[in-house]
Design brief:
Elements: H1 2-27, E1 31-37, E2 44-46, H2 48-55, E3 61-67, H3 74-81, E4 103-106, E5 110-114, E6 117-126, H4 136-149, E7 152-158, H5 163-167, H6 170-179, E8 194-200, H7 209-216, H8 227-241, E9 246-251, H9 271-287, E10 292-293, E11 296-297, H10 300-314, H11 322-346, H12 354-375, H13 382-427, H14 434-451, H15 457-501, H16 505-525, H17 528-532, H18 535-548, H19 555-576
Parallel strand pairs: 3-6, 3-7, 7-8, 8-9
Antiparallel strand pairs: 1-2, 1-4, 4-6, 5-6, 10-11
Helix pairs in contact: 4-10, 6-8, 10-11, 11-12, 11-13, 12-13, 13-14, 13-15, 14-15, 15-16
């Protein structure tokens, strides 16, 4: 009993799973609204229920939409194409209340292979034209939306092609001129629907349906210059050019009693109609292609996103326009191209010379424009998007120009301050050296010339030249005076060192001679100005420069360590050097010992 009960439970669970799956399938086996009119019946809004039915589709989508006048048999035609009865398919006007408000979709797509790719074909029913209580703008929006979103657009017309039917194609023509065939043979940014003229007529008076359509598209003479005729003639010419994008097909009436069509099966319908209907299915299947946007197909979620963009564009103005459609679709592409420009310009290491920044801007702008040209929607109206992209690029470029000026000013100011500090340090050298000052002067000038770049360089160059010139003048003015004072002090120091420290007679005598020369002879025979231009002074300066500063030794930097080492050496010599016999040419030391040093000490 336990085993039997377990099997019952398993079978019950399995049955529930199958039942839930079948319910899920059946729940989509009906028509759903995807686009509905707003309260004023002028603009369009999305219906969530139908969008959910589309979003679940993972394969590429191909949409077949039927458009035409009010109560022209569009819903019945779709049911026939889907092999559905009126009770289970789209609502038929004469049988039920009119349910086709906006655009409806059959929830279960027809899955077929197109060019070897598994494709989900959706069938769309649209609200008819010229019905009571609607504006022409609303009809235009429905027509425009069906034109953009479908892969096959079936224009269902009773009896013949009227002038008004051609006028309604103005948006489709403009759309085709704007988007289709921009880059034939390559990926197109956007491909409108294939147009299928479906003429429901029992006889054509010896003409084929294609001849009838071609005749309707022939230019009408306009001797009076009527603007409406000119406008329709332009549509005719455009439609004639689009001949490779349109097909004509005739379909006879299925039965004389049209109000009872939903109650009749195929055996009761006109055999000619049934045959032509099957041919029409083959034509639609041959025309159906996956919807291509920017060179790639769309799955369910992508198709819904695409639909939202279309409705946003069509609701944007008072009347639907191709320009608004182009602008909305190009918005994302424009943002990506602008991001491309910004990212590439961000790679630059600022500051840069103005010429280099301008060159980089032109190259990067050209790359962004090229990317936009390869991806954008539209041909004629795209110029507005191109202009907007150019304006946005110029705004970003101005920010980079300002950033370049800021970084240039910051860099040049830092270099200027560094050189100014360097010149201030050279002004207060412990041991004045013209060679060291000149070397520092040249290093500052060269580093500034090489490192300071950008628009601020010219301004700071002027400041730099003024500062360096002033520093040089001040240094030269103080240099001779400081050197003279250093030599006088040096001579006195050497007198002390020669007399009392190392007691080297020749050093002391030389120092006295140098001191007397500087303090007496120069004051008696040379003026202060003449001294600095005297050849003897130049010899003294050259000797001083050689001692104080050279590429090998900078005495100003090493003066203190050298003096410390010299002091230690002299101290050592004074402490331990007295044990040795003093040479004759040293100054004599005073002997303080009296009475003989060897006399024995008395107690």
């Amino acid at each position: 009993m336990m085993m039997i009960s377990r099997w019952v439970v398993v079978i019950w669970v399995f049955g529930c799973v199958l039942a839930s799956g079948s319910l899920a399938i059946d729940s989509f086996h009906r028509a759903f609204p995807i686009v509905e009119p707003d309260a004023g019946h002028t603009k369009l809004s999305l219906a969530t229920e139908g969008l959910e039915a589309i979003e679940r589709i993972t394969e590429p989508i191909s949409a077949v939409a039927v458009i035409g006048p009010y109560r022209s048999g569009k819903s019945f035609l779709l049911n026939q194409l889907l092999s559905l009865s009126c009770n289970e398919g789209f609502g038929v006007g004469h049988m039920r209340d009119t349910k086709t408000k906006g655009i409806w979709v059959w929830g279960t797509p027809v899955r077929t292979k197109i060019d070897g790719v598994q494709t989900a074909v959706l069938y769309l029913d649209t609200e008819g034209f010229e019905s009571i209580g609607k504006s022409n703008v609303y009809d235009d929006r429905i027509f425009a939306l069906a034109t953009v979103m479908s892969s096959v657009l079936i224009y269902n017309l009773p009896e013949t092609v009227r002038e008004a039917d051609l006028s309604r194609l103005s948006f489709a023509v403009e759309l085709a001129e704007e988007f289709y065939g921009r880059v034939k043979g390559e990926d197109v940014a956007f491909q409108p629907a294939k147009l299928l003229w479906l003429i429901q007529r029992d006889f054509l008076q010896g003409k084929s349906v294609q001849e009838m359509v071609n005749e309707a598209l022939m230019r009408v003479p306009n001797y009076d210059g009527n603007k409406n005729i000119d406008q329709v003639n332009q549509i005719r010419e455009s439609l004639a050019i689009m001949g490779d994008n349109s097909t004509a097909f005739s379909l006879p009436q299925p039965h004389l009693q049209r109000t009872k069509l939903c109650d009749l099966d195929d055996s009761e319908l006109d055999p000619v109609y049934v045959k032509k209907r099957e041919q029409l299915k083959e034509v639609v299947a041959a025309l159906a292609r996956p919807k291509i946007v920017q060179g790639r197909t769309l799955n369910g979620k992508e198709f819904v996103s695409f639909l939202k963009q279309i409705i946003e564009a069509l609701n944007k103005g008072e009347i639907p326009s191709t320009g608004s459609l182009v602008e909305v679709f190009n918005k994302g592409i424009l943002e990506r191209c602008l991001k491309l420009y910004t990212e590439r310009m961000s790679w630059l290491r600022l500051p840069l010379p103005e010429e280099s920044l301008a060159k980089s801007h032109e190259e990067t702008r050209e790359a962004a424009m090229k990317a936009f040209d390869e991806q954008h929607f539209g041909r004629h109206h795209a110029q507005r998007s191109i202009k907007k992209l150019d304006e946005e690029i110029e705004k970003v470029y101005k920010n980079f120009v300002l950033a370049n000026e800021y970084h240039s000013s910051k860099l040049c100011e830092a270099l200027y301050t560094r050189c100014e500090d360097k010149m201030d340090q050279l002004q207060v050298l412990r041991l004045p050296s013209m060679a060291k000052f000149t070397d520092g002067f040249l290093q500052c000038n060269q580093s500034f010339e090489h490192e300071c770049v950008g628009p601020s360089k010219a301004t700071y160059q002027i400041r730099m030249m003024k500062m360096l010139g002033k520093s040089r003048s001040v240094f030269i003015k103080e240099y001779n005076n400081r050197l003279y004072n250093w030599l006088v002090a040096f001579s006195l120091v050497m007198v002390v060192v020669g007399r009392f420290v190392i007691k080297f007679f020749l050093i002391e005598i030389g120092a006295w001679i140098m001191f007397i020369f500087l303090e007496t002879y120069t004051r008696m025979f040379w003026s202060a100005e003449a001294l600095y231009y005297n050849p003897i002074w130049h010899v003294i300066v050259n000797s001083w420069e050689t001692i104080v500063y050279s590429p090998v030794l900078d005495l100003d930097r090493w003066a203190i360590p050298i003096c410390v080492v010299a002091a230690l050496f002299i101290t050592y010599w004074r402490c331990y050097g007295r044990r040795k016999q003093v040479s004759r040419w040293l100054l004599p030391l005073y002997n303080t010992q009296k009475g003989g040093s060897n006399r024995p000490r008395s107690d």
